[in-house]
Amino acid sequence: MTSVEATAPFLVVGLGNPGKEYAKNRHNVGFMVADLIADRIGAKFSRHRRAVGEVAEGRLGFGGPRLVLVKPLTYMNLSGGPVVALAQFYKVPPEQIIAVHDELDIPYGQIRAKVGGGEGGHNGLRSMSKSLGTKDYARVRFGIGRPPGRQDPADYVLSDFSAAERKELDFLVDRAADVAEAVATRGAEWAQNAYNGS
């Protein structure tokens, strides 16, 4: 690890869409997790001068890694632009980028860590991978499950969590924040072993 990487923060990217009409959508769970981590480290989001996004900066505990929390404000399918701009600004290598996103292929109630691999049709991940020129960044995958019946997946992800799901939502957002922090402090492999089975 070079001295630049040793001092570079982790870029934790919460994927979502800007605007109140999207705030409680399944597709916006990345924003929810980023907001919670910001609360935990006592950081406030503000617009960044170099990217179309909101950023909050802080440190995980005493002597822990620095975090730059990011909420791109370009809409999901253009998320990669702000992520690349901020990665360059803060000199963050891809292996210190953590994307937090909703995942159709995982049942609701499950959260998993992963590094690299495909995007599973997720437009935010697709944009990030294309802009970064690599898929080798960490992901915290928040399971939302498949839509019921014949509902279009695009409509499903842009709808709010159901009343039954909302009963568990705060707990699951809290758990996803734990997983993201574990990736930053202990590494993706440790987080996978600790959280993926449960």
TrEMBL record:
The record marks 102 as: Stabilizes the basic form of H active site to accept a proton. It is an enzyme of class 3 (hydrolase). Coiled coil: none annotated. Gene3D superfamilies: Peptidyl-tRNA hydrolase. The active site is at residue 27. It is found in: Cytoplasm. Its main location: cytoplasm. InterPro entries: Pept_tRNA_hydro (IPR001328), Pept_tRNA_hydro_CS (IPR018171), Pept_tRNA_hydro_sf (IPR036416). Its EC number is 3.1.1.29. It comes from the Bacteria. Catalyzes the release of premature peptidyl moieties from peptidyl-tRNA molecules trapped in stalled 50S ribosomal subunits, and thus maintains levels of free tRNAs and 50S ribosomes. Monomer. Belongs to the PTH family. HAMAP family: Pept_tRNA_hydro_bact. This is Peptidyl-tRNA hydrolase. It comes from Asanoa ferruginea. The lineage of its organism: Bacteria, Bacillati, Actinomycetota, Actinomycetes, Micromonosporales. The gene is pth.
